[in-house]
Structures are given as structure tokens and as C-alpha cells.
Amino acid sequence: MARKVAIVGTGQTDHKARRRDVNIGELIHEAVGRCLEDARMTIDQIDAVLIGNMEHFEGNFYVDMQMVDYTGACMKHALKITTGGTSGSSVAQAGFYHVASGHFDTVLAIGWEKQSDGDTTAGLIFQADPWYERPTMSGAIGTFALAACMYMEKYGITEEQAARVAVKNRTHACRNPHAHLKLSLTIEDVLNSRVLAHPIKLLDMCPASDGACALIFAGEDLAPKLAPQPAWVKAAVSRHDQPFNGDLPMLDQMRTLTAAAKEAYRIAGIIDPFREIDVAEIYEPCSFAELAWTEALGFCGWGEGGRLVESGATSLGGRLPVNPSGGVLSTNPIGATAMIRVAEAAIQIMGKAGERQVPDVRTAVSTGFGGSWWSDVMILSRSKP
Amino acid sequence: MQDANETILFEESLQVPYRYSAGSTVSRFFREIRDHRRIMAIRCDRCRKVYVPPRSVCGRCFSRLEDWVELTGAATVASFSFVHYAEPMFPHPPPLCYALLRLDGSDGGLVHLLGEVDQDQVRVGLRVEPVFAEEPKGTILDIRYFKPLR
Amino acid sequence: MIRNPDPEPLLDITVQKSYPYRYSTGQLGTFFFRELRDHGKIYGRHCPGCGAVYVPPRPVCGPCWKATDRWVEVGPEGVLEAFTVVHFSFLDPMTGKPRPVPYGYGFIRLDGATSRIQHFLNETDQTRLRIGLRVRAKLKEERVGKLTDIEYFEIL
């Protein structure tokens, strides 16, 4: 029988466009050091180390081996997990399952990316199927442009509604000391920004960042001793889908997120997500994605994501704040990004979110996204499940 | 289903540029080789280990490392192999000799090339010293190879 | 021992990596690309479980977990189901150079197919593109057995 698990510490670097002052190992070590400090633990208390990133960005395929000095994995159980955009949340989910299995009492989970060491779009194109998709692939931007085109056509979603997400999240980021971009924007700024691939404009899209994030998972006996308020894991679910962009509805009624959320809610006993969830960290590579995925998470009906953001409910101070951290639109070291969603959800539960703290958080949800269109969903709670 | 003799192959060469930040510790290692023809190691006091290549964290005790040690560059061959085939990634055409070199004064070693030496001269225990490149670039090949100590 | 080293200047190590590959396309891919190359025809693969006709072809239908059982000729015309005009230039790892922009790009559901393929469009004026337009594959005169044997889809 699986045992209960909680997150007892988190750590992140201060994310930037380029961290020239550190190499890959040192970047990782910074997040690890901060996480151990947050949990008030030493590396000797860690039983296992899990690490992941999206490897083509650095062309480094052996991080688990090469960075042992920096991750603390010396003579320990260690695994690398790499699942594209979901790498950070896959590593987090694996951290949960390692401890839940009963075989490990404490697990350090690390997600990282040093985007400035490589070329982001070239790395993304590498990831596409060489026969059928790579010749025409146009980066994440091109793919999201096509997805947004279909989504807008079906429901009448507007660029203004998407722009509201961009403004909201960048405003939230101003309260997050770790965020890469801290911008004061208006809707006009977003609408007038350079068109990358219609309808995606520069300010609709996430940046590329250098950054790392770490989490410590502990079993139910240890967790209350390590953290005054652990973030208990109620559900950790992932769903995959067919491989080609053309097989899927993409943004609209995204199959994997809808299914993963449904299963996670079932496990966690959540019937009415909009009422029962207090904060959400959604992995939103572009503004349109957050609109569509508030729908997939059941915060509103299909096609109503635009009206939801217009209502203010998903802003800090609203009924269900989405991405109080600033989201992916503000910070995006891809291998860390999905783990930062989990970390920020945990920080909210733990009451450590400072100026971005949502009051009285009992239940938080985080999502991870990977091309092509698979999803991770994790539900965290203030109380032990 | 189809002509069993033909399987279509798709040949492609993907070009991706990388620019790795070395960080301050590794930068110093390469600068010392490039500018001063000095091989430097870094010491962990707690573990009493001297690491080459250097790193900023000791993997065993997890402390930050800051104490540098200048090595003489002299080394002992711990293991070697002669390579007789060509690969585009190799630093030069065959034959080339790879060796694991234990650098005097350190607990680590470098895998590097041996040069100015005949195949029958190389043995475990051979004493060697570095030969530096005329036009260094800030990479490990600023040491061209190690040659027998005279 | 030397303490407190001067951390500057910081070094970068630049590497241009070349990843050479020679992909085997497998049995279904070989048929698909041979038909495209030699006869200018596009084929999809049929699932006996759900009736889907897949382009790109695959031996198993993911949702049904059944082996696909036969080839179905599809296209060369179809419907444009999503579109954009790409304005940002990026380093194309297939050429090692920036990709020329602007260019049209979209999803096309070929007549007879269930899934869509993504390809280039011969239109760079966003205002002239809309979902639902009929399009046709424009084939190259000299074909080699690659997806780019279709040069682009032209708006009809």
C-alpha cells in the first residue's frame, strides 16, 4: 500500500536570460543548496537524486553522470528523466512515486535548463519527427500559432483576451523575486508587440531562461518533522497522446490535460474544481494556452476561458488565482519550468510565497506540458490525504 | 507489401551551435593553461583530495572549493591505448594514443593524448610532461599532448 | 596554495555540433515515400477498429491498439484547418542558416484522411487565409522520397 508523501523544501535560482557566471553544474548546485536550506537538511539526509532537463538545448546527454559533484548524488541512487517540456514535472512525479513506494524516505528532485548554452528553436526542431514534421516545423511559436488559430475560430476567442493573460502573469511576476521577466504591461503593449506568427506576438510568448529548481519529497513519518507546513501530494497523474501535431485537437479540449485533470480530481476527491481549488500554477507557453487550459482543468466551460480571465477571477486577489508566480510567460528554463509549477504550488501551501501569497491555500494544482501535447497534473494539499 | 530490396533512408546532418559558460572555476583552469602554461588543481581540505579537472563543489562532502594548487604538469601513465581507426570527432587522424594520466600532486587525472613517442615506448608507469600549443584557444587542446619526461 | 582567484574573465567554450544521421524509415514509410517519389501519390493507413485513415502512416492505431490494415489513397487536395504566417527568423538546424521569412504554414486535412499534416502554404498574406479553404499539394518535378517532395500546398 502506497504511503503518504509531502514536499518539505523547495529551491530555485533567480532566473535570467543568461547566467554567464556559472556552468551547468554550478547552476544546478545553486538550486540544490537553496532547497536543502529551505528544508533545513543536509545532503547526507537525501536517499536518492532524480534530475531532468530537455537535452538538445545544451547537447549534454549525461547530466546525471557528469554533474554528480553538484547534485549530491555521489554513491547514491540517481536517475535522469527527460520528457521534453514536462521534464520538471515528470521528475517531480517520480520523486513522489519513489517515496510513496516505501523504498526511499527522502528524494531530491532537480529540474534545470541552461538555454543560453544552445539555440532554443534549433533544439526544439531537433525534437520533431525527422520524416514527417521536422522539414516544416517552425518551433514552438509556429505550432502554437496553428493551435491558437483553430481555438479562436471555434469559440471566438480574441487576441485581447489572450493579451489579458500576458498582462496578468507579467504583473504577478513583479512580486516574485525569482522571476526572469518582471514587466509592467498594458493590453495595448501586447497587441502592438511584434508579430512572430499570427496570432502569436512577442509579448504573447514565453522567454527562454537559464535556471534550476529543486524539491525534496519525504515520507509521512519524516515530513512533519522536517517542515512546519508540508505540501502533501494528493494526486500525481500524467497522460500521453499520439505523436503527430496533426493527430490532435491541440489547445482546444486538449485530451491529455482533460483526462489527467479528471483522474487527479477523482483521486483527490475534488468535485467542483473552481470552488475547491485555491490556486493553480498552469504551464502556459503562450497566452492562448492559459485560456484553453483553464477550460481543460474544469475552471469554466469549453470556450469560456476568455470570459474567465476577463472576470478577474484568475488574477491575484480573485477567486482562483492562476500563475501568481508569473507563470511560464515570465520564466522559462524549460527543464525546470514544469517543476517550478510544482514548487510554486508547494510554496503557496507552505505559506512561503511572500508578496505573491494567496490567502488561506488548502488545495493547489500544478500542470506540466510537453510537445506533443502530453500533460502532468499534481494536486497538493495543506492536510495529509 | 513492397519491394523488399528497397528501404528508404533519410540522410541528414543537423547543425546546432553551442556556447557553454565555463563558470569562474573552470574558466580559471583554462585561463591558466592558455596564458601561463600552468595546470591548476583544486583542493578539498575536508576530504584531503586534490581534484583535476577542478570543480567548485566536492562531490563527497558537498563543500564549496576555493583552494587552488599549482601542479608541475608531470604525470604518470596509468593506462593507454593506441587507436588505429578514424572518426570525424577525433582530434587527428590515426594512429593516436590516448592515455589516462595521473598528474603529480593530484588525486585525479586527465584523459589526454601522448605524442613524440613510439608505440613500443609506451607503458604503464611511463613518466610524461605536457607540451603546450603555440596558439592556445582556451580549450583542453591548449595542451597538445604529453611527451616522455627526459 | 592560492586562494581567492580572480573570477574574471569568464570563458565560453563554443562548439558547432554536427549530428549526422541516416534514418531508416521502416516498411510503411518506405511505401509512403516511394509512392510519393515515383507516382506523386499520397497514401494514408486505415485502422479497422475506428476507421481512421492516418497520415503520417503508422502500423498501429494508438487509441485502438489495433494493427492498421490497408493503404488508402488520400488527397492531393484537402482542407486548410489551421494557418499562420511565420515572421520570425530562426536558426534552422537542417541548413545551419536562418530560415527565410515570411512563409505560410498550416494544417491540412487531405481528402480521405482523418489526421492532418503540417506543411508550407504558398500564401504570406494573412488576410487571404482562412480555415476551410481548399488546398492542393504542389509536387516537385524531381522527387527524392522526402516530405519536401511536396513543395507546398497551394490555395485553390
What does this structure look like?
The complex is a heterotrimer of chains A (385), B (150) and C (156). Chain A is built from 15 helices and 11 strands. With 385 residues, chain A is an alpha/beta fold. Chain B has one domain. Helices cover 9% and strands 41% of the residues of chain B. Chain B contains 1 helix and 9 strands; from the N terminus they run βαββββββββ. With 156 residues, chain C is mainly beta. Helices cover 9% and strands 44% of the residues of chain C. Chain C is built from 1 helix and 13 strands; from the N terminus they run βαββββββββββββ. The A-C interface holds A 20-21, 59, 119, 121-122, 125-126, 129-139, 141-142, 145-147, 149-150, 153, 194-200, 241-242, 244-247 and C 7, 10, 12, 15, 17, 19, 21, 23, 25, 29, 33, 54-56, 62-63, 81-88, 90-94, 99, 105-107, 115-120, 126, 131, 146-148. β1 (9-21) of chain B pairs antiparallel with β1 (12-24) of chain C.
Give a brief outline of the structure:
The complex is a heterotrimer of chains A (385), B (150) and C (156). Chain B is mainly β and 150 residues long.
Helix content of chain C: under 10%
Counted up, domains of chain B total 1
> In total, how many domains does the architecture of chain C comprise?
1
What radius of gyration of chain C results from the CA coordinates? 21 Å
Q: Largest chain-chain contact?
A: A-C, 40 and 44 residues
Instruction: Note the overall shape of chain C.
Output: globular
- Arithmetic mean of pLDDT of chain C: 92
* Main sheet overview of chain B: 5 strands, antiparallel
Strand order of the largest sheet of chain C: 11-10-7-12-13
| Distance N to C terminus of chain C | 76 Å
Per DSSP E runs of 2 or more residues, the count of β-strands of chain B stands at 9
- Calculate the mean pLDDT score of chain B and round it: 92
Which percent range describes the beta-strand content of chain B?
35-45%
- Which structural class best describes the helix and strand composition of chain B? mainly beta
Which H/E pattern describes the elements of chain B?
A: EHEEEEEEEE
**In terms of per-residue confidence, which ranges of chain B show pLDDT below 50 for 5 or more consecutive residues?**
none
